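Look over this record as teaching material.
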Amino acid sequence: MTNKRPNIGGQALIEGVFMRAPDGAAAAARKPDGTIVAKNMKHLIPPERTGILSKPVFRGALNLIDTIKMGFSALNWSAETVEEKKDTKGKKSSRAGMWLANIGAVALAIVLFAWLPLRLSTWIVSIIGPSSGGVEQFYIHIIAGTFRIFAFILYIMAISLMPDIRRVFMYHGAEHQVIHAWEDGSDDLARDAEKQTPLHARCGTSFLMYVMIVTILCYTIIDSLVYLATGVSPAAHWRVLYHLPLIPLVMGVSYEVLKMADKHLDTSALARILSKPGLWLQHLTTKPATPEMLEVAETAAKMALGFDLPPEVEIIEENTE
């Protein structure tokens, strides 16, 4: 019976949780007065894809793009709901500020996680001494990948010191705990989620770890081909320019690895080994949730799955805005 239940997944929001099921999506948040408000977001689910777009690698890249779009929409909604802004001008200003912050974050991420690791690793390899082109590219990306992983861990550790971020991490734990309860066949998700772990193999944090590992392999091959074609080891800024358009490929491959590992987690030792780094990293990005947080996650999950919600929940139906 448990195996027939549809998979659900989601993400933490500001004082809330977003959940997606095969045929539904919803977000729930707790307002300052303690009321749980839930919004139907089924309209954000893209139509089912066919043909080559439904094939491995392609489906992973597109699914991640869809997930990011839905996640941003849910995050913006939760921020507005929790802050309870009444001034329309203030809302527009807040949205503009959020978009500027997002653009700045992307630019900073490109510098810190793309250009800088490549620049430092190229410099280190040049000091170590000359080597053949393919081996040199491998060394560059091994060192750059190690930099990225350590930089990401330090970043997570730093932001976890912020009280607001710690609460987001607790809602992240609530999402996972409720998903575990659902997968175990529970009908009282909030209650049974209390004894569940906040770690889950099918998590965005684990996905990011896969991306950082697959990046090493993919970009080593690509840069080796560039070296064979030009006879020159590309500078860091040139690598970034042609690496960025290939991110969907890396994401697609990483998605397939994540899905395969999760599918065979109970039967394959290799799958469990592949899942270990992501699960370890989740010790930083998730925290056990309070019962009140689990209620919010349960609300989002049940609305996404099409269940009726209790009358005390304030429901916002889907729209096309």
The mean pLDDT is 88.
